[in-house]
């Protein structure tokens, strides 16, 4: 790699003008991350004219990139405080983040998330700096069969991460898969479950489902729960993560960062898979699995590090082979075109100052984000001191107006309300929304890649086994599924040597 | 990790753990558990959903494995849902993860109705008036706040959203007041 | 509470400043302005594609030009879905007063009807075509691993050749399907959700060939990562002068994508004229011309009625070809 260009890149970033753009981008990103509905993609689209007008194209790109990763962190805040995941990759943060907040440890959760995000992103930028082109090549080895099996693995992970009954988790996941099929089929353009409504032809937006099931469901549930009770303000135990928290979280942050970096490179679904895999990993390696879902700090640290690492490594396909990995990257692609640069294999040679300027701005941007978020954690945590009676209508408005802004569609508001009521009823009957939402995200990935695979294999399903990567993934899946059984056998044979610390329900819940 | 470190880190931990324990107990202060009827009804609803979806899916055309039709995947998933629902029906009767509905559940209906109201009014009269109304209903009637704070908070919230969406972020949102 | 509100307001303030510094606060949607000149208030520009695709880029470029020429705002609203049918339906239903306009794709009117049932097909008769915009050519590219360097090499292939397309009912699918059918090569279509995933699959050798828009493929063609075999326009593409057309290679296949400005049927003529004039003025600007250049778009700045005639002719031609070769676009897989 070209060290001079790399260092020149730092020169570019530290120009006051660019630093300012970076700061503004990160700030706007954080703000829109906090507002559910309006995602980074839409914001980048709105702010795209800046790219036309900016004196220096690098500044504009730095700002837009800042919006993207700033939003990643902002989304965590609502997940932890209000149980509203702004995007698919922060759904798993809700499980333990919100539980921690309920225990007055929102500060711990947000603090660890900030640190994890910083570390995850930084690890990923370093990876991007040194391994970018190599890793981009491996992403290309992932074809439809690999995505199909990866998504299958994801769905099984989804069913295992909850705390409730396994059958119910599987049902929720399966319903999520079914909901993902709503809309016009992308292979035949046949309409499925649209009931002749044009608005459903395009499918249901993830944010609408997530905000309905989590956000609105929670608001409605609390309305009933709160009735006739005196509000005791949540004791805010400690705003900062203690040394013990840090110690507990750091291995999780490390693992999450690495998982995130590698999965994030895969276009489409990489970030979701990353956060999911990080959570599943933490739960698996933990000694006491029952803490998960009830406020385990690793349950926040792992996925948060992973999704930020993934967000960063999703720049790799864009910058090295000219392929946008997700909608936000597509926006950035657009911005690059606007400033007269076509991202592609030759970007690094043709425009080194842009390539390194953008990458190095991420080091600085993440540092700014960390510095900013530390005082802000204190402020945000105070939101929990607000009486629920006051917080509820404000949250309600955020969700409704937020959902409207996604597609400027009133129809989406009603869909969200429907999911809100479903979410409430699920909570009453012991179903968790998490598996449903995550399976929903993985559903279309799984279906379309399965169908593509069958076309490529000419209808022969053994093709999944003979390809090295998909075969390995399937073998791994099988191992994970059989592991509890084997362990059970092992334990029966040598009852004296195995400390029986885990409870059996949990073991069953993992299957 | 040295032993001294461990011990030093341990002391505040005990406090934190007790707090967490208390919080966990508070969290588990939940309404009475719903009986088997809740589980059975839930399972039957899921079963009906699965069967209905499967019926619709086979109408979309299943195709073959070689050329999967649009209905094949949803059909497989729907059948899976139905099978899981039957399993739940058999093994789930004695689960204790459901909660009884109470009179307070009616509040949920009221809350949901305000959401729908806002959705209906938004395109016709803009977001300001419905937002203020929604806040007032939630604060005063569902939340039991005083009239004074109800009005202040309702207006302040709506104004903040107005500025945030229309000015700070420049997002289209139907609104009545234009400057 | 008050404190957090203040904080939020402060953050909002920063954002406002940032926005104000670069282009001004937008007062969009539904404002109560009722002055006579066009546009009064904001004009929605739904686009039937996600942010970042060619259609989206073009819409945004035109939106910017219209803002410069006419004043007011022309927010581009992404209404992805059904190859643009969703956005089209929205425009068709909108008030015919110029408050909703949309740059649309030819393929939605000429090719999609071949793939979907009759009642789902979008008809050009629901719109008035105001002005042509530009043409975007398709190119047939092969992966390095496939070893193909020309269409003639297909004969050497053993077994079916797979080709990635950018979706069902797109020009890319039709171009590829026709090529293989006319050339009598056994092949299988693998539809992807747009150009980027199809290109990724091609780069990774997951499919042997793919039909893509020139703009999507050109960087990787230049870098030598994929091999162009044919273009499908009436003549060679200026950006890829060495790539022969299908006709030159003896295959009667001509498929192009072009875009044009539409308004709901019955929009007043003076509004249509104002839009057309503003667009023509935009076409003259060097920014716009540079935009076409970077995005590999060939100008097709012809009047609306010519576009309409072209659409009808292409639709008939494609329908005939599809029938002749027995191609079923709707059942690609």
UniProtKB/TrEMBL annotation, chain A:
Organism: Nocardioides lianchengensis
InterPro entries according to UniProt: DUF112_TM
Protein name: Putative tricarboxylic transport membrane protein
Pfam families per record: TctA
Domain DUF112: residue ranges: 19-438
TrEMBL record, chain B:
Domain DUF1468: 41-174
Entry-linked InterPro entries: DUF1468
Name of the protein this chain belongs to: Tripartite tricarboxylate transporter TctB family protein
Automatic annotation (TrEMBL), chain C:
Matching InterPro entries: BUG, Bug_dom1
SUPFAM superfamilies found in the cross-reference section: Periplasmic binding protein-like II
Keywords: Receptor
Family, as annotated: Belongs to the UPF0065 (bug) family.
Name the record gives this protein: Tripartite-type tricarboxylate transporter, receptor component TctC
């Amino acid at each position: 790699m070209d060290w001079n260009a790399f260092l020149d890149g730092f020169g570019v970033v530290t120009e006051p003008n660019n630093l300012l753009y970076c700061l503004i981008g990160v700030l706007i990103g954080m703000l829109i991350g906090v507002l559910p509905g309006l995602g980074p993609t839409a914001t980048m689209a709105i702010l795209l004219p800046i790219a036309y007008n900016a004196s220096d194209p690098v500044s504009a790109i730095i700002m837009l990139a800042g919006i993207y990763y700033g939003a990643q962190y902002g989304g965590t805040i609502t997940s932890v405080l209000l149980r509203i995941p702004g995007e698919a990759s922060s759904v798993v943060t809700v499980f333990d983040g919100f539980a921690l907040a309920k225990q007055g440890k929102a500060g711990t959760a947000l603090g660890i998330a900030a640190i994890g995000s910083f570390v995850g992103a930084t690890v990923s930028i370093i990876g991007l700096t040194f391994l970018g082109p190599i890793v981009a090549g491996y992403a290309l080895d992932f074809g439809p069969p690999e995505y199909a099996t990866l998504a299958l693995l994801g769905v099984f992970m989804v069913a295992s991460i909850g705390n409730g009954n396994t059958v119910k988790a599987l049902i929720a996941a399966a319903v999520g898969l079914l909901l993902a099929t709503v809309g016009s089929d992308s292979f035949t353009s046949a309409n499925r479950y649209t009931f002749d409504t044009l608005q459903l032809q395009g499918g249901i937006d993830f944010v609408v489902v997530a905000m309905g099931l989590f956000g609105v469901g929670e608001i409605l549930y609390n309305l009933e729960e709160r009735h006739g009770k005196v509000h005791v303000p949540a004791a805010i135990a400690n705003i900062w993560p203690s040394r013990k928290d840090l110690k507990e979280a750091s291995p999780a942050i490390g693992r999450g960062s690495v998982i995130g970096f590698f999965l994030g490179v895969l276009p489409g679904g990489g970030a979701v898979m990353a956060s999911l895999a990080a959570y599943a990993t933490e739960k698996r390696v933990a000694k006491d699995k029952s803490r998960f879902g009830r406020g385990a700090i690793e349950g926040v640290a792992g996925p948060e590090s992973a999704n930020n690492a993934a967000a960063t490594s999703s720049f790799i396909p864009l910058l090295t082979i000219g392929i946008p990995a997700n909608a936000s990257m597509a926006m950035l692609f657009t911005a690059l075109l606007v400033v007269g640069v076509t991202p592609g294999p030759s970007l690094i040679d043709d425009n080194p100052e842009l390539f390194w300027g953008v990458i190095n701005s991420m080091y600085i941007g993440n540092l700014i984000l960390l510095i900013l978020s530390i005082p802000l954690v204190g402020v945000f945590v105070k939101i929990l001191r607000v009486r629920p009676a006051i917080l509820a209508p404000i949250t309600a408005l955020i969700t409704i107006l937020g959902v409207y802004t996604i597609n400027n569609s009133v129809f989406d508001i009603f869909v969200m309300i429907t999911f809100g009521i479903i979410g409430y009823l699920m909570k009453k009957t012991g179903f968790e929304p998490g598996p449903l939402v995550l399976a929903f995200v993985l559903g279309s990935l799984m279906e379309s890649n399965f169908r593509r695979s069958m076309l490529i294999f000419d209808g022969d399903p053994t093709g999944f086994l003979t390809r090295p990567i998909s075969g390995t993934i399937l073998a791994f899946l099988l191992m994970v599924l059989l592991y509890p059984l084997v362990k059970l056998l092992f334990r029966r044979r040598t009852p004296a040597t195995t400390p029986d610390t885990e409870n059996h329900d949990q073991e069953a819940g993992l299957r | 990790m040295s032993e001294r470190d461990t011990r030093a880190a341990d002391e505040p931990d005990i406090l934190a753990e007790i707090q967490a324990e208390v919080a966990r107990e508070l969290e588990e202060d939940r309404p009475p558990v719903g009986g088997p009827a809740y589980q059975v009804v839930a399972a039957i609803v899921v079963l009906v959903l699965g069967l209905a979806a499967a019926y619709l899916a086979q109408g979309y055309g299943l195709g073959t494995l070689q050329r999967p039709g649009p209905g094949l995947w949803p059909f497989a998933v729907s059948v899976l849902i139905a099978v899981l629902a039957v399993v739940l029906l058999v093994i789930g009767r004695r689960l204790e993860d459901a909660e009884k509905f109470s009179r307070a559940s009616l509040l949920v209906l009221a809350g949901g109705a305000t959401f729908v109201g806002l959705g209906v009014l938004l395109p016709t009269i803009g977001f300001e008036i419905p937002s203020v109304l929604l806040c007032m209903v939630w604060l005063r009637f569902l939340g039991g706040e005083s009239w004074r704070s109800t009005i202040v908070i309702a207006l302040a919230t709506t104004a903040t959203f107005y500025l945030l969406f229309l000015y700070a972020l420049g997002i289209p949102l139907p609104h009545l007041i234009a400057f | 509470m008050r404190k957090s509100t203040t904080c939020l307001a402060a953050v909002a303030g920063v954002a406002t400043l940032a926005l104000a510094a670069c282009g001004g606060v937008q007062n969009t949607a539904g404002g109560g302005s009722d002055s006579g000149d066009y546009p009064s208030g904001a004009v929605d520009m739904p686009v039937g594609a996600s942010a970042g695709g060619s259609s989206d880029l073009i819409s945004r470029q035109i939106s910017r030009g219209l803002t410069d020429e006419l004043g007011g705002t022309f927010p581009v609203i992404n209404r992805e879905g059904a190859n643009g049918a969703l956005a089209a339906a929205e425009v068709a239903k909108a008030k015919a007063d110029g408050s909703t306009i949309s740059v649309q794709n030819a393929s939605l009117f000429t090719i999609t009807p071949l793939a979907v049932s009759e009642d789902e097909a979008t008809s050009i008769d629901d719109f008035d075509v105001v002005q042509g915009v530009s043409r975007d050519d398709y190119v047939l590219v092969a992966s390095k691993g496939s070893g193909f360097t020309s269409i003639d090499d297909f004969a050497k292939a053993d077994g079916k050749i797979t080709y990635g397309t950018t979706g069902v009912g797109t020009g890319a699918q039709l171009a590829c399907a026709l090529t293989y059918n006319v050339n009598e090569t056994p092949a299988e279509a693998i539809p992807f959700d747009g150009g980027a995933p199809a290109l990724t699959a091609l780069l990774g050798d997951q499919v042997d060939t793919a039909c893509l828009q020139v703009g999507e493929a050109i960087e990787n063609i230049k870098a030598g990562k994929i091999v162009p075999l044919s273009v499908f326009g009436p003549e060679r593409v200026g950006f890829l002068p060495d790539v022969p057309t299908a006709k030159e290679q003896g295959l009667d296949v001509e498929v192009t994508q072009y875009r044009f400005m539409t308004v709901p049927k019955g929009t007043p003529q003076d509004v249509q004229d104002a839009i057309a004039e503003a667009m023509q003025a935009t076409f003259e600007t060097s920014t716009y011309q540079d935009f076409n250049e970077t995005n590999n778009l060939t100008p097709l700045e012809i009047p609306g009625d010519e576009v309409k005639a072209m659409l009808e002719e292409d639709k008939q031609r494609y329908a005939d070809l599809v029938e002749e070769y027995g191609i079923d676009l709707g059942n690609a897989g």
